[in-house]
Amino acid sequence: MSGNNEEAFHRTGSFRRVLPPGNDTTGISGITVTSANTNNSYINANYIPFFLEYTLMSEFNILSKKLIPGVYVIPADKTPFIWFGVIFPRYGLYKNGVFRFRLLIDSNWPNCDCPKLIFETPLFHPLVNPVTGEMSIQYHFPEWKKGVSRIWHVIDHVSKSFYDIPRTKTPENPEAAELFKTDNEKFIKKCEDCVRQSQVDIYKQPKHSENDDPNYLLFDIYDEEIHGAIRRSWLQQKENNTKTQHLSWVQPGSLEPFSRPNT
User: Fold this and answer.
1) Buried b (16+ CB within 10 A) or exposed e, 177-201
2) In sequence order, which residues have a C-beta less than 8 Å from that of residue 90 and are 6 or more positions away?
3) How far is 112 from 114, CA to CA, in rounded Å?
4) What is the per-residue pLDDT across 172-209, written as a single tens digit (0 to 9) for each?
5) Backbone CA torsion sign across 113, 114, 119, 124
6) Predicted TM-score (pTM) above 0.85
7) Which residues contact 236 (CB under 8 A, 6 or more apart)?
8) With contact defined as beta carbons under 8 Å apart, do 27 and 49 qualify?
9) 82 DSSP 8-state letter
10) What gap in Å lies between CA 134 and CA 207, rounded to an integer?
């Protein structure tokens, strides 16, 4: 919390947080959170920073439980309105690619338009602007509905766009859209080049103001001396898990629950 209000926060009779007097805009994580949203007039002004952070934390909690395959996402440490992520396509034209992105959430959250998703790794795709890296997802979310539209919907849609490439009349990358429609061989070649380049670019640190955030995702080239022990421990744990014999609810020929075969 901000230093000027340290004495205003205290515990009185319980462990509930007591809000300070005045318009403090410091959120629960110590981050200054402001919103241009004027539609929350029913909320005490002191609660707005807490409300914004709690709703975004809730969104991230929902996303975490969805376990979208091949996707890793983490909110920025310095602001709740930027999330960092990486997509590892597991099959299809972009298989073995590593595509880093940023999710930008409007400060008017939750009364705002659809969040923007910008790829930092160059991606040859009909929906991705080749200059800015922004993926066009507004067509899929023409209206962002408070309490209905979720951030995990955006991440899930973007992930699926790697496997089921949509056809659109207004592509962000006209070249990719045209090749996808008329010359499948050249389109596949472009995608393969894109995947190979992503495996090189992932070790580079893009130059933008957010890349000094403690939660920004960085990658190192594999070093046996540094990473070998951890890798072996993970593989050993996986092997041990596969050897674990799970109990059946009822073993065939037995009335005993959670029974195991006689060996």
Assistant:
1) bebbeeeeeebeebbbebbeebeeb
2) 69, 70
3) 7
4) 999 999 999 999 999 999 999 999 999 999 988 777 76
5) negative
6) no
7) none
8) yes
9) E
10) 16
